[in-house]
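If you are new to this repository, start here. Below is one unmodified record pulled from the training split, so you can see the exact layout before writing a loader.
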Amino acid sequence: MTQSVTVFGAGLVGRAIVADLCPEFSTRVADVDETRLTALAQQYAVETQQADLAKSDTIAALSADSDLVVCAVPGFMGFATLKAIIESGTDVVDISFFDRDPFELDGLAKENGVTAITDCGVAPGMSNLIVGYHNATMKVESFDCMVGGLPFDRVWPYEYKAPFSPSDVIEEYVRPARLRENGEVVIRPALSEAELIEIEPVGTLEAFNTDGLRTLLDTTSIPNMRERTLRYPGHIELMRVLRESGFFDTTALQIGGASIRPRDLTAALLFPLWKAGPGEEEFTVMVIEITGLENGETVTHRYHLFDKDDPATGLSSMARTTGFTATAAARLVLDGSFRQAGISPPESVGAVSGCLQKMLAMLSERGVTYQHSRRA
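And here is the target side for that same chain:
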């Protein structure tokens, strides 16, 4: 009997998830936007359901008759959506990147016998899987991850296109970044400690602190860890100006008799500027370095990802690298390779023998290839 999967969210990443799952599974996608759903139904063999995913009873009903849910809603909806899925008793892979601690739902997931893999995108996601694997097989002393999705054409003024909703991108620019240095958790402002880095095959990019370590701070004791986002040089300064001027604030202002949150207005203004137009190609680049003791010697494992849009499918690089990570994890749950009641961040999946290798193989089959090297 064909297994059934429901995808919550029909955005750029949701589309990639649907495209990858529907040839193999009975796939349904739910979204409030009927236009998005119609476009998906015209291209893929997928059932569509127009639904308000802000309603927990709607989420529960859609989840209950599925073998697994992939949650690809915006971050501000993520925690409540995940909670409702878990309450339905359905296994779930989540990529919503919400700002709450997912372990708040651990007891609920265990009580309902639900396997819930959270933060299962590219970073956090594959970055956590990779360090989780090495943390189980060697004594890791440091973990450094740099990642970014960017357009090939650098168009003034932002030289950037948003692969996710603008509100989620803005969150990266305001949420304080948590790092670990010499065994101690430290907090740095987002966009801080900018550094010019040479990244092959792109050239010079700007790296800055973001809060991408997430659950790694709770699940590992690696003494030195940091995650940085990559942009073209100059983008950070523009974002800092907007942030410090109040454009990213969430406290409503009374303007001309209307109550307006500056961040909502900013997102609405930036969306058309950050939306990739027809023919505008993008790429995703990620570099991970893991250093520590392995078999008695100090070694560094390096993973390098460079991925481009797929013109054959029309899927953007960030949608592919994020969405296909989620679908690879979904397959691990559906085929029984990973079964663990409770909240499982990606590093927990990576620590299980064979899971990282299976996911890397599935990604490679879809053209998303992580180049791995080891140096002593």
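Two things worth knowing about this chain: The domain at 4-121+317-368 is CATH 3.40.50.720 (Rossmann fold). The mean pLDDT is 94.
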